[in-house]
């Protein structure tokens, strides 16, 4: 069983894998479908992207629930767009569609990743066999759990990066090798160090929770209008 952690990056997607023995850098991919096609051995993925989206009759509340759990880092949790907003031609249109359906606007941070959200949403609609094996997670919350409930400095700071590296080193012997392989084979305009650390964190959570030990923040609705589960995976240390 090969487990994976996936995070979005400037280039597209960054992949970290665990093959049951060791962790490795899996590369960066322009499209999510390419990541899947070129890594057929992967059996389960934790990914930092919203899964299960709002429609007019089913409103996602997961983001609010997650913010409540990580209150001092609530700014790291963006509201997921409704599905119709993903098809907007510009930010203003997306914001207005979201206001109509969800009663609230849309941050520019969310709008900038709408194509990635759309990619994963379309993939799950077309590949329903992945519904139980491609799971939404949140690296900031996962690091919070791995640290024993301690808040870390922002990942954009040098100290925040070192804090996250120390946490990962406690669990991943190959942490330095994975980081070295990722950063030495990419351009910084394509991939940042925190992207790799986040993907590694999600892969670790996937491994720790591999034998039905994952915990979930569950949306009361359970599923969105297309039957896609609305839940956020994490590991309760």
DSSP strand content? 15-25%
Please trace the helix and strand order, writing H or E for each element.
Answer: EEEHEHHHHEHHHHEE
> How far do the termini sit from each other?
22 Å
Largest sheet: 7 strands, mixed
The chain-level mean pLDDT equals: 95
Rg, Å, rounded: 17 Å
Strand order of the largest sheet: 3-2-1-4-5-7-6
Give the structural class.
Answer: alpha/beta
Helical fraction = 25-40%
How many β strands by DSSP?
Answer: 7
SS field, number of helical segments: 9
Uncertain spans, ≥5 residues at pLDDT below 50? none
Shape: globular
Features:
single chain, about 240 residues, alpha/beta, about 20% strand, globular
Walk me through the structure.
- The chain has 237 residues and is α/β, with parallel strands linked by helices.
- Helix content is 38%, strand content 19%.
- The chain is built from 9 helices and 7 strands; from the N terminus they run E-E-E-H-E-H-H-H-H-E-H-H-H-H-E-E.
- The protein has helices at residues 32-37, 62-69, 91-102, 108-112, 114-126, 139-146, 158-169, 175-184, 193-208; strands spanning 2-8, 13-18, 23-29, 42-47, 134-137, 215-223, 229-234.
- It has a 7-stranded mixed β-sheet, with helices on both faces.
- Strand 1 (2-8) and strand 2 form a beta hairpin.
- The mean pLDDT is 95.
Describe, in short, the structure shown.
With 237 residues, this protein is α/β, with parallel strands linked by helices.
What does the secondary structure layout of this molecule look like, with pairings?
Blueprint: E1 2-8, E2 13-18, E3 23-29, H1 32-37, E4 42-47, H2 62-69, H3 91-102, H4 108-112, H5 114-126, E5 134-137, H6 139-146, H7 158-169, H8 175-184, H9 193-208, E6 215-223, E7 229-234
Parallel strand pairs: 1-4, 4-5, 5-7
Antiparallel strand pairs: 1-2, 2-3, 6-7
Helix pairs in contact: 6-9, 7-9, 8-9
């Amino acid at each position: 069983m090969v487990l994976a952690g996936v995070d979005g990056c400037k280039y597209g997607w960054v992949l970290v894998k665990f093959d049951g023995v060791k962790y490795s850098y899996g590369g960066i991919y322009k499209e999510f479908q390419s990541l899947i096609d070129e890594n057929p051995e992967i059996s389960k993925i934790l990914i930092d992207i919203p899964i299960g989206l709002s429609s007019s009759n089913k409103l996602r509340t997961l983001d609010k629930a997650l913010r409540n759990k990580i209150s001092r880092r609530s700014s790291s949790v963006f509201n997921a767009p409704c599905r119709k907003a993903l098809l907007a031609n510009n930010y203003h249109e997306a914001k207005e569609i979201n206001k109509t359906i969800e009663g609230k606007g849309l941050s520019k941070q969310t709008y900038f990743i709408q194509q990635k959200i759309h990619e994963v949403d379309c993939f799950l609609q077309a590949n329903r066999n992945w519904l139980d094996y491609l799971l939404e997670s949140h690296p900031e919350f996962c690091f919070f759990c791995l640290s024993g409930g301690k808040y870390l400095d922002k990942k954009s700071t040098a100290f925040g990066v070192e804090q996250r590296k120390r946490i990962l080193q406690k669990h991943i012997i190959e942490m330095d090798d994975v980081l070295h392989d990722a950063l030495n084979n990419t351009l910084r305009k394509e991939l940042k160090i925190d992207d790799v650390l986040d993907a590694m964190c999600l892969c670790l959570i996937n491994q720790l929770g591999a034998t039905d030990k994952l915990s979930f923040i569950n949306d009361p609705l359970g599923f969105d209008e297309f039957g896609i589960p609305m839940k956020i995976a994490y590991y309760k240390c």
